[in-house]
Design goal:
Structural class: alpha/beta
Oligomer: single chain
Shape: globular
Number of domains: 1
Strand content: 5-15%
């Protein structure tokens, strides 16, 4: 199976499909599947743009809406995970995955699927320590804090993924697992991104939870994005297995954002998505661990008095299969829950963040599996906009006003309210070893043209520095560079 792997999409869906078409015509092959490693930006309309954690200058509708509206159809089955620049309100409707448009499938907060015998897993979002232990308490409309915390990975999804016992062919994450640079051409990476070295040495580069998953799951391939550069590595495991790691750039001209890889598959099976029985069972038997509270939640461990290993038994898997009628094929049941962009801006209309809604795909999925939808659980609570949280403090952020809710639990007798008033291609063979001298020189030339005083200013704008009081948003680097603050603030780069 020929699989196209893409780094950060940033809404450039048309350009990605056009690049793949160009490669197909040039090389004489057919791509069967497209995998996108985050920052997909499935923005359906202008309201969705206001749910993205980006500066207003990046409120660009791009081209996804054309596929959402049916003006165009995705020419390749497309699978993606979420990053840190997403229309989070839309993705929250599909916590366990689902179709965001015909032939375009989101893996959810975390997920595992099967396509023609290829087992693919993924984890959406990026790591931020202060939110890692919390429940999925966020919902639209967001304030400046929840607009960012909503895409931070949680210990629940990592815990669930660690229960997998059957081999994975591919795993997707947005940010890199910590330490992968030690298994590739680290010197070349530092020459291309000099400011990475200090972050490597201080342990601020990469994600510790995804490093843990890498060591537990040991997939054949691990694809990432986020840091806007191409990097390959071979990670050995004590059992003798090896994971081929590949990170890719964002979709821009003359950037290495796309890679074609050949993965063995079952040619007798159709290239269509099937649920993974082991993953479905894990979701079902760990449903009681789901939390929608803005407080720390801890997963069970071996020293407790409750079950802590949720690797499914054959009996548990049989029960799950029965609930799906022995048919694990994912239904093509895409359904709009909002109006798509008309193709023309309406300058006379005030644009606000939309209210959260349940998605019929998730309702059906949860009913079949007998599990809870985190967003629907929140919506069932009394969060009426006519009530103001007693004792809450209004916080002004630029032209935006919201209620400070960071320490409010959803199970509090006094429930919270949010008030928001918003203002108006290159094809190349993947090599998991040292690159050529010519490529190194090219990287160095590209790097020298980017590291300027203007670049650090642009980097500060791109990250959308948070307005809440958070010492981690301050820049401690002295090196002038575009990607400063990737790990000191919640937002990455664009």
């Amino acid at each position: 199976m020929k699989i196209a792997v893409e780094g950060c999409a940033h809404g450039e869906l048309e350009n990605i499909y056009d690049t793949i078409k160009f490669l197909e015509e040039k090389e004489g092959f057919k791509v069967d599947l497209l995998l996108c490693c985050g920052d997909f930006q499935s923005s359906r309309n202008e309201e969705d743009l206001h749910c993205m954690a980006v500066p207003p200058k990046y409120y660009n509708i791009c081209s996804f809406y054309k596929y959402f509206n049916g003006e165009k159809t995705a020419p390749i089955l497309t699978i993606f995970i979420g990053g840190n620049h997403e229309a989070s309100n839309y993705l929250q409707e599909l916590p366990y995955g689902g179709w965001v448009a015909p032939n375009i499938y989101y893996l959810g907060y975390a997920g595992v699927i099967n396509i023609a015998g290829v087992r693919i897993g993924g984890l959406s979002g990026i790591y931020k320590g202060k939110d890692y232990l919390k429940g999925h308490f966020e919902f639209s409309p967001y304030n400046e804090y929840t607009k960012r915390s909503v895409y931070h990975i949680r210990n629940l999804e990592v815990f669930r993924l660690k229960q997998l016992s059957e081999p994975l062919n591919i795993f997707l994450s947005h940010d890199w697992p910590s330490g992968v640079w030690d298994y590739g051409n680290k010197e070349q990476l530092i020459r291309f991104k000099p400011f990475f070295e200090e972050d490597m040495n201080s342990g601020q580069l990469g994600s510790k939870p995804t490093e843990e998953l890498l060591n537990v799951l040991k997939p054949e391939y691990w694809f990432s994005a986020h840091l806007h550069c191409k990097f390959a590595a071979l990670i050995p495991h004590s059992c003798g297995k090896v994971t081929k790691f590949l990170a890719l750039d964002k979709c821009l001209p003359k950037r290495r954002f796309l890679q074609i890889v050949d993965i063995p598959h079952n040619s007798n099976l159709k290239t269509e998505i099937n649920y993974d029985l082991e993953w479905l069972t894990i979701l079902r038997i760990t449903n009681h661990l789901l939390s929608v509270k803005n407080i720390n939640n801890y997963m069970p461990g071996p020293n407790g008095n409750e079950r802590w290993c949720f690797t499914p038994t054959e009996e548990e898997k049989s029960c799950t299969l029965l609930s799906f009628g022995d048919n694990l094929q994912v239904l093509n049941n895409f359904e709009k829950t909002a109006e798509g962009y008309s193709g023309q801006k309406n300058f006379n209309r005030k644009i606000n963040q939309p209210k959260a809604v349940s998605n019929p795909q998730t309702v059906l999925f949860c009913n079949r599996l007998l599990i809870d939808d985190p967003l629907n659980t929140i919506l069932k609570l009394d969060l009426s906009a006519s009530k103001v949280f007693e004792g809450a403090t209004d916080v002004s952020v630029g032209d935006e006003t919201f209620i400070d809710e960071t320490d409010i639990s959803l199970n509090s007798p006094l429930q919270k309210k949010i008030i928001l008033n918003l203002p108006q291609p290159v094809s190349e063979t993947v090599v998991f070893e040292d690159s050529s001298q010519q490529e190194r020189e090219q990287n160095e030339n590209e790097d020298s043209s980017k590291v300027t005083q203007d670049a650090i200013n642009e980097g500060n704008e791109d990250t959308g520095v948070e307005t809440r009081d958070d010492s981690e948003t301050s820049l401690s680097k002295k090196f002038k560079r575009r990607n400063a603050s990737i790990y000191q603030s919640d937002d990455g780069i664009r």
